[in-house]
Design a protein that fits this description.
mainly alpha; Sodium/glucose cotransporter; transmembrane; about 75% helix; about 500 residues; transmembrane transporter activity
Length: about 500
């Protein structure tokens, strides 16, 4: 049984113009602060190498800061608003959507953090090249760039829609402004700017979802009343279904194992032990956020049972007072900025290392290298804006980025733990086949109730096993052992 508990608060984001101006002013102030921080970070950027690695900060970045950085990069508007939306329908079990990411980072700490750091590479394509060769390196880079751009489009579309409703501004204008701000501050300070600003983003996100939860719980009369006014299954940790929970785990673990900006962030710490510590910090930060976001959705279910689930978060914020609503809106903006910043600099790094250096600069960094990577950051950051504006159903494509990363995560484990398994050709075919089959499975509507995440995980296992069998029967080019030897330089 649910009850509508809606407490007018003297003007929220959804109320009068004064509240609208207050929220807009807070978000604009937040943007200005980001610009000032990036101006400071710009002093440490003197080359393309320092732009992509944050080497200008010093010997290394503290592990706890990298933990905040990764948490901010992974919890975007789709994760925060999406978890709230799912909790509106399924209850506390929706928190597994984000908890799965935390578990992914826990596995990452034990299995991969140190190995990525010791490899000396700060791109996933560079890691694959050590074992599977140049062709697989190029294919991996193209697929990862494509996946990151799809994620960026979904972030712009979803984040712009939510912020436009909260701030009472045009959706397209909200998308353009948020995108332009994120791209410009990253262009100034590169990876250094991403680190500094994402630590702030993490704090603002926590404050924002904390305020939303406080308002929601207070409005329904406390946790006891929340429990009394919702069906018991809303408090079941498995209400969403084991199949969905496992699918989230596959997507979450896959995303942490093989996402470019995770590798790039991990390489900013000093050694393998600190890389592992950074992963632990990220996991710890993820879990409470997921639970709080789910509880916000459950409060919204009690307060506004008749609204659409996608509007649960914005409806709740719309009844907060103007100051609190503005802070929460800034938190949502931080969710958008944090991930877009990471995607922009990561994609630019792949373009620079895998295409510009070998094809244009002859493998050597030059005076033009910094300009190229800065321009690339702007282009890859602004390009998804047009797609987000003109493609109304773009949020449905978010699965593709997750599926691609889940498929690549299988090869990541082979690279570090079974480099002899399969062949170089098998790895290349695995990447391409995974893309085609997973997309096709999704378009067919996930036949037999099997989520496309399972397919993304299974395809590379099957292809690499077939290539291993073929190698034993007919022979084939075995992967090298280079991945087991630390690279001399992170810039190789």
């Amino acid at each position: 049984m649910t009850a509508r508990v809606c407490r007018p608060t003297g003007g929220g984001v959804g109320g009068d113009m004064q509240a609208n101006y207050m929220a807009v002013a807070i978000v604009i102030g937040y943007m200005v602060a980001l610009g000032l921080i990036s101006s400071y970070a710009r002093r440490s950027v003197t080359s393309a190498h320092s732009f992509t690695t944050a080497s200008g900060i010093g010997a290394s970045v503290p592990a706890v800061l990298v933990g905040f950085l990764l948490m901010s990069e992974f919890i975007g508007t789709a994760a925060s608003v999406g978890t709230t939306q799912e909790a509106f329908k399924s209850g506390i079990s929706a928190s597994w959507n984000i908890i799965a990411l935390g578990v992914g980072f826990l596995f990452y700490a034990f299995l991969l953090a140190g190995k990525y750091k010791n490899s000396g590479q700060n791109t996933i394509s560079g890691v694959f090249a050590q074992v599977y060769g140049h062709k697989t390196k190029v294919a991996t880079s193209v697929v990862m760039i494509f996946a990151l751009q799809i994620v960026a489009v979904s972030l712009y579309a979803g984040g712009g829609t939510v912020l436009s409703g909260l701030l009472h501004v045009d959706r397209n204008l909200a998308i353009v402004i948020c995108g332009a701000v994120a791209v410009l501050y990253v262009c100034m300070g590169g990876m250094t700017s991403v680190i500094y600003t994402n630590v702030i983003h993490s704090v603002v996100k926590y404050i924002g979802v904390g305020l939303a939860l406080y308002f929601g719980v207070t409005s329904v009369g406390g946790f006891d009343q929340l429990q009394a006014k919702l069906p018991p299954e809303m408090f079941s940790w498995t209400n969403v279904g084991w199949s969905q929970i496992f699918a989230w785990f596959i997507a979450g673990v896959g995303a942490t194992f093989s996402t470019q900006y995770v590798i790039q962030a991990i390489n900013t710490v000093g050694d393998a032990r600190k890389a592992q510590a950074a992963s632990f910090y990220t996991a710890i930060l993820m879990v409470p956020f997921g639970i709080m976001a789910a509880l916000v959705g459950m409060c919204a279910k009690v307060m506004f049972p008749e609204v659409k689930s996608i509007s649960a978060f914005s409806e709740l914020i719309g009844h907060m007072d103007s100051l609190m609503a503005g802070v929460v809106a800034a938190g949502l903006a931080a969710s958008l900025f944090g991930t877009i910043a990471a995607i922009s600099v990561s994609t630019a790094t792949l373009l620079y290392k895998d295409f510009y250096l070998p094809l244009v600069a002859g493998g050597e960094e030059s005076k033009q290298s910094l300009r190229f990577v800065q321009i690339a950051t702007v282009v890859v950051g602004l390009l998804p804006i047009a797609l987000a504006i003109f493609t109304p159903d773009i949020l449905k494509m978010t699965f593709l980025g997750k599926a691609l990363r889940a498929s690549l995560s299988v090869l990541v484990l082979f690279v570090f733990y079974a480099p002899y398994y399969g062949t170089k050709l098998g790895a290349l075919i695995s990447i391409l086949t995974s893309l085609v089959v997973t997309v096709g499975w999704f378009l067919l509507g996930n036949p037999f109730g099997i989520d496309n995440a399972y397919v993304a995980l299974l395809v590379p296992l099957v292809v690499m096993t077939i290539s291993e069998i073929g190698k034993r029967i007919w022979g084939g080019e075995t992967a090298s052992l280079a991945a087991l030897q630390p690279s001399r330089s992170a810039t190789e």
